[in-house]
Amino acid sequence: MVRLITHNMLACHVKNCTKDNFPLAFSDVELVIRPAPENLEFINRFLPKLDWKALVDTARSLGDTTLPETMPESMTEDQLRALHHVLMEMHVEEGNMTCRGCGHVYPISNGIPNMLLAEHEVGR
What we know:
Belongs to the TRM112 family. By secondary structure, this protein is an alpha+beta fold.
């Protein structure tokens, strides 16, 4: 399943695609909300690994506006819960992720993104 915690680490790897290759843009998505056990300590420890702007922009593109525009210096419990929801409970089941730089489309089927590239697309 493509959760936003995973999406926040995915970039386009098409040969010579180095500009605007992160974050990949979702389109034609089927979004499913699946409750997940809260582990706010994990979410808090994961904060430094996040690209906050990319996360907020992606969440908003999927209809979630609960995260503040800029990452708070210190997260409240309610903010950590909102972040948990965005990272762990929002699942993209079907759709596409498209690179803004080169336009390559990575399809998502049954919650699994196809990140494989054709031989001519692979950078060496």
